[in-house]
Hints:
Oligomer: single chain
Radius of gyration: 15 Å
Helix content: 10-25%
Distance between the termini: 26 Å
Structural class: alpha+beta
Amino acid sequence: xxxxxxxxxxAVPLSVAYNQWTQFEDFPQFMTGVERIEQxxxxxxxxxxxxxxxTREFDARITEQIPDERVAWTTVSxxxxxxxxxxxxxxxxxxxxxxxxxxxxxxGLVETVGDKLGFIHRQTIDDLxxxxxxxxxxxxxxxxxxxxx
Length: 149
């Protein structure tokens, strides 16, 4: 099991960062390898990703969602096995720290080798940087879901 913990500061208010993160169908705009996400229910998403030239699909259940604080999830079916949480921390009125923690269980030879080479850790850093660029360049969220799970 691989554990990844990374954070980044974004130059937007906490609610803007959180609101954007709840727009799962926009993740392909900033997450490498994510081809499509479908929000099937308030607590269920279906992901299609591309890893090492292979397409993988899985469902993730949101296990906890507290507006402006955290979103936690775990996979419930499919080709990927992971759980994680993203938390949002107000630094000041215009800056937010986004912390992402992931526990990932590599599946198959490609993922195991990629894991050993640090691919998952580097991809997490890149995805957070891409999120920063995405939200800061927009200056506003594309939508929001403020419900609790």
